[in-house]
C-alpha cells in the first residue's frame, strides 16, 4: 500500500500539469468504482460463513447488506470519498507539498486519539511514542519546505479537514468490516462517494479539452484508479480489520519515504543527511507501534 501511494504521488503530480486535478479525480473514481462493482458482482455467492484470513475473505461478503449497513456505507462514501477527495485535492492546490505531507502525517495521531476515546482499541505508551516519533520524522524530511500561514493558510486548513475526514472514514469502517469484506466496504462506499463527487466537479470536467488529453495522462488516470484506489484502499481496509485503525494508520507515514526514494532513484534528487535521519525516525516510530504485538500484555 505504501509503495503504491508513494510512487503514485509523482505520477499524479505529472498528470496535473495537463489536466484539472478535480477532473482527474472524477475520472479515476468512476473507473475504480466500476471495477469494484464488477468484482463484487463476480464474487457474489450464497453465504457459507465468513472466510476471514483468506483471499476469499478480502473479496467475498457472506452477510447481506442491511438497511443500516447502507446508511453506514452512505456516510463513509460522503466523508471518506466525496469530501476527502474534494478537500484534499483542493487543499493541495493551495498549499505546498511539504505542508500537505506534514498535515497528512498527523492522521495516525488523530486516529489513535479517536480510537482510544471510543474505547475501540487499547493504545499503549509505545504506540503514542511511535506515532509522535514518526510525525517528527516526517517534519525532518519535509520541514524545509514549510510555510505556515499567509497565502497557504486556506489550503492548509482544507487539507487538515480532509485528514479529519480520512480519520472518520477509517474508524467508521470498523463495525461494517466485522460483517463485510474490505472490497465490499471500499467498493460500495466509493461508488456512493463517486455519485456525490462527480456532480460537484462538473464545471472542472467541462473545462478539460478531452480530445487533447495525451495517452500518458490517460495511463496515469487508469494506473491511479486501479492501484492507488482499488488495490491500496483494499489493503488499507484489510489491515484495519486485522490489526486495527490506529496501527494501520501509522503505516501511512511511510508514504513520503517511498515518494522520496522514488524522487532520488528516478528523478536524480539529492539524498541529504537530514532526509536519512527523518526516514530513520519514521521507521523506528512505525516499529514502536508494533511493540504490543511483539510483547503482549495479557490481562
What does this structure look like?
- Helices cover 74% and strands 0% of the residues.
- It is mostly helical and 299 residues long.
- The protein has one domain (2-294).
- Helix 10 crosses helix 12 (215-243).
- The two termini are 33 Å apart.
Q: How is the topology of this model organized?
A:
Layout: H1 2-15, H2 21-43, H3 55-59, H4 67-92, H5 97-104, H6 107-118, H7 125-142, H8 153-172, H9 174-177, H10 182-200, H11 202-207, H12 215-243, H13 245-250, H14 255-266, H15 273-288, H16 291-294
Quickly describe the structure.
The chain is 74% helix and 0% strand. By secondary structure, it is mostly helical.
Counting DSSP E segments of at least 2 residues, the number of strands comes to: 0
Radius of gyration: 19 Å
Order of helices and strands: HHHHHHHHHHHHHHHH
User: Can you count the helices?
Assistant: 16
Instruction: Characterize the largest beta sheet: strand count, sense, and whether it forms a barrel.
Output: none
Low-confidence stretches: 46-53, 293-299
The oligomeric state of the chains shown is single chain
Beta-strand content: under 5%
Shape: globular
Number of domains: 1
Mean pLDDT: 80
* N-to-C span: 33 Å
| Helix fraction bin | over 70%
Structural class of the helices, strands and pairings? mainly alpha
Keyword list:
74% helix, mainly alpha, disordered C terminus, 299 residues, globular
